[in-house]
Amino acid sequence: MELTARIEAKQRLIDVAAGRAPADLVLKDVRYVNVFSGEIRRGDVAVVGGRIAGVGSYGAPNEIHLDGVVCPGLTDAHIHLESSLVSPAEFAKAVVPHGTTCVVTDPHEITNVMGTDGVEFMLRATEGLPVDVFFMLPSCVPATPLDEAGAELDWTAIDRFYGNPRVLGLAEMMNAFGVVHDDEAVLAKIAAAERSGKRVDGHAPGLSGGELCAYVGAGVQSDHECSDPDEAMEKLRLGQYIMIRDGTAARNLEALAPLLRGKAAERCLLCTDDKHPIDLLEKGHIDYILRKAVACGADPIAAVTAATYNAAQYFGLRDRGAIAPGLRADFTVFDDLEHFRVQAVYHGGVCVYDGALAPFAPPENDPLLREKALDTFHVAHIAPEDFAPNGSQGVIGMIPGQIVSTDEGRAERPDPANDILRIAVIERHRNTGHIGLGYLKGYGLKTGAVATSISHDSHNIIVVGATAEEMALAVRKVVENRGGITVVRGKEIVGDVPLELGGLMSDTPLTEINEKLEAAKRAAFALGVNEGIDPFMTLSFMSLPVIPALRLTTRGMVDVMTQRYI
Amino acid sequence: MELTARIEAKQRLIDVAAGRAPADLVLKDVRYVNVFSGEIRRGDVAVVGGRIAGVGSYGAPNEIHLDGVVCPGLTDAHIHLESSLVSPAEFAKAVVPHGTTCVVTDPHEITNVMGTDGVEFMLRATEGLPVDVFFMLPSCVPATPLDEAGAELDWTAIDRFYGNPRVLGLAEMMNAFGVVHDDEAVLAKIAAAERSGKRVDGHAPGLSGGELCAYVGAGVQSDHECSDPDEAMEKLRLGQYIMIRDGTAARNLEALAPLLRGKAAERCLLCTDDKHPIDLLEKGHIDYILRKAVACGADPIAAVTAATYNAAQYFGLRDRGAIAPGLRADFTVFDDLEHFRVQAVYHGGVCVYDGALAPFAPPENDPLLREKALDTFHVAHIAPEDFAPNGSQGVIGMIPGQIVSTDEGRAERPDPANDILRIAVIERHRNTGHIGLGYLKGYGLKTGAVATSISHDSHNIIVVGATAEEMALAVRKVVENRGGITVVRGKEIVGDVPLELGGLMSDTPLTEINEKLEAAKRAAFALGVNEGIDPFMTLSFMSLPVIPALRLTTRGMVDVMTQRYI
User: What is the DSSP letter of B39?
Assistant: First the structure.
């Protein structure tokens, strides 16, 4: 903002604060959370030009009376927006009624597909939404050298984005091994973020002792992978901020809720990491975490502070996170600090939810970027022969409720009757013709096939099926849809979730995507998929060669512990 | 730092942290304060390349055993280094043994004399000291339009300094009236600091309610002028950080110590503002505040955190403030957290004090800047006639122990026998020949004269005396000395404190300046100065036309309440 504009905005605010001019609106005689003093206080909150002008005694033609508790707007400190399966505008529609006014996203998924065009696409797709979207830049594209992603990004590829004020740093540094072992390319990414004065988020489940010191000392300032309080306290004592995560794929809140009492709470933030449609619709977002945290014994004000001020503080967002003069007028009004039912949401002084969502126009993306996002599948015609047995291959064992797998030896051919299914991963970014083949045990499918272009982290097409014909049809349908999830039975498409944006998201409304997804799930279960397994989410992890024991990539079966093809 | 150098430094640190390489030194099995968890913990602290590599279990050829409590190095969050009357190198020698490793200075005094050359001079004079010196840029030069200072600085004059990584923001915005009344030039200074991502410190004693909201909302983020807990809590609740001040000129710790318990402590910092030689030598620095705070009931760890981590956090100094991997190895080792006796001090991993101060070479200043600092007096010959009565003039009444004054009406001529002394302020920056004349009551001098070039905030020469001859001699001696304090009796110089750097500081060691100053004080008292008055410090405020009731400037006597010459 130009200096003159800054000065004029200040003058307008000062005049209201000092009582010389009327506010745009006044929240009259409300109870509000003061994150600085840790109190619930009562007073008038005057707003002008989207900012809080004053807290005290104010009047305005536009006085709002609220019987709930006014909190600063909620922040999700770490999410991959792609996990909602919908465009950011549709995501915003889903989370604003839950009180979210700010999210920090890592566009890791779409960047693995589209490279830096993915970052650009998401930056454009999040402009002017009723929830402010900030970015951390993907640090690991591809996730490992074994992966065939849509791009390979070193520090030079992403450095220019740090000039964007919505880019706050480098996202979860998953390559803890690389950090701890002095990998120059990895450390260059951290050093470049630091040089720009930005944050570096961590991702290091279980890292401890000297290796944790090395990781923290290298500059990694947060962690969202803690699953027990001792791990969290070790990291916190070494200076990391702890993002308490409770999302769809991983839920650590019950274990970590004790941190939201006392001194440690000052260093805690809240995040979801991944949030699937049904979860957003049925549970909520950060409001759900607050409700559950307090039910688990968290101090309510400490929990609210974690979801607001602490996030702003950590990310250097000095314009938000509290109810105080000069800050953005982002408010979430709860009925109380026990049930956390959202009564109203204000974003930049504008009421965006008061029982109903205020309509807004989704941002227009750049036509060329949109075209690129709609054209990410480059795969030659797939035929049943592509999945034909060609000798002995490894068998991945699936475990209900988990994303780790087991090594089930080898098989010669599919045997659905005995739970040995054909699984394949088809490279789809550059038409290399690479198809990795293997077998899958424990999925349970008796007939038909399931294909998905959500396959972490490179998002090639993963397909599993009882017959080669059904597998080929399922894959062809995914390609025809420009991405998504397909369930096939015989020659029929019995489940179909088109995700046309990068093969990961859709412009369709969230409720609609959710219906399609739940219908497809039912179809998959009807084909025999084991009840303990999420037919698509669990499958989507079978190609991520960083989680033990066996994984299938476009080049074949990988023994994760040795990082070798078998 | 270049990216390559950053990466190499990281690799060196990582290797030590991970146990693959020996540390430069290890504090072995020490008790240390963990500011994140609020605990005293025990462990090994490994240091390499001036940074902390790890905290846990480490060994090194160079193991240090300490029986005290290791704290992060102490920070003075707001000081005018000039108040010590010595050069920054001499100041460093005085404060390092008290555990200070970092100070944030506002070079307000020398900038009123030298303009931005004063900022530049202080930046150079503080390079490479064993205490890190950061800067806030003077916001009010001159302090008021009634003052004749050595410079007039608007935002454009100081903006270039924000590029210096040691410049952290805009110093205490004393012109609260200007802020609250939309003064464009004042708001431009705040807006420019914000645009550079910097902090804006406040100075607004007693400001409250809507005007305080206006001041905070305009962007002023801290205050060090609170003198009671209610005032502090009002400011804290509105989002300001509270710098608890305990220095020479103002001491608010006893009143504010209750803040250093519980939630409010998170938003508190410690500072001295002004620190005179005898105070530094006899009481100490931030260590003294800690000792006194705990004696007043502060939580010891909260007090240490205010003096370390909170300051780093507020000023955005991400490389310090805690004992954690990756941060600077700045340590202050206390015997315990009650007496706060300093056993040792480490600065960037180097022991700079262990009962004795490690010698260091003071930085070489730029020769041209030094020449300028030594040549700030531009005054024509001063004769007794300059102080001759020229009609009825106002009488300033001094009050023992205070810097406010009273309006004692008018007088026609000096009458030392009845405590009516001649007082004059001589413009000394640009040889304008301006001499403001008036009378002073309550100072008590019976014979002789006292002159000083420390006269807030413009630092012209202030002189008071029983006879015009003695006054002229005292002023001439100050000019001859290129600044300082002089006490004259008859034709004899009976007290003499040369302050040749800008008329404010000396290269002389602190103990020597202190001896001269105390000798000069004794000489002044011997001439009759009232015991309740600091002969030089109280006098130095008599020309600051922002403190009621009467003040004398180079242009004459000012009624402060009306801001008019009488």
Answer: E
Give the pLDDT score at A348.
Answer: 98
Is residue B548 predicted with pLDDT exceeding 90?
no
A210/B56 CB distance under 8 A: yes
Q: Is pLDDT above 80 for A340? A: yes
Strand A241-245's sheet: what is its strand order?
Answer: A222-223, A241-245, A268-271
Q: What is the pTM of this model?
A: 0.96
DSSP A44-90: EEEEETTEEEEEES---SSEEE--SEEEEPEEEEEE-GGGGSB-HHH
Name the closest residue on chain A to residue B327, using Cα atoms.
A217
Q: Report whether B80 contacts B107 (CB < 8 A).
A: yes
DSSP strand pairing (B132-137 vs B167-173): parallel
Residue with tokens 């100065």: B529
Residues 6+ apart with CB under 8 A from B259: B229, B232, B233, B236, B242, B244, B265, B268
CB contact under 8 A, A36 and B7: no
Q: Which residues of A touch B173 (CB under 8 A)?
A: none
- ipTM for the complex? 0.96
Q: What is the pLDDT of residues A177-218, one digit of tens each?
A: 999 999 999 999 999 999 999 999 999 999 999 999 999 999
Q: Where are the alpha helices (DSSP H) in A165-245?
A: 176-180, 184-195, 209-217, 229-237
Question: What mean pLDDT comes out for the span B481-492?
Answer: 98
Q: In 10 A of CB B59, how many CB atoms?
A: 13
Order of all β-strands in the sheet with B241-245: B222-223, B241-245, B268-271
pLDDT (0 to 100) of residue A146: 86
Distance between CA atoms of residues A199 and A187, nearest Å: 14
Subunit contact A326:B239, Cβ cutoff 8 A:
yes
- Residue type present at position B285: H
pLDDT tens readout for residues A451-464: 999 999 999 999 99
**How many Å lie between the alpha carbon of A506 and the closest alpha carbon of chain B?**
37
Q: What percent of chain A has a predicted confidence (pLDDT) above 90?
A: 94
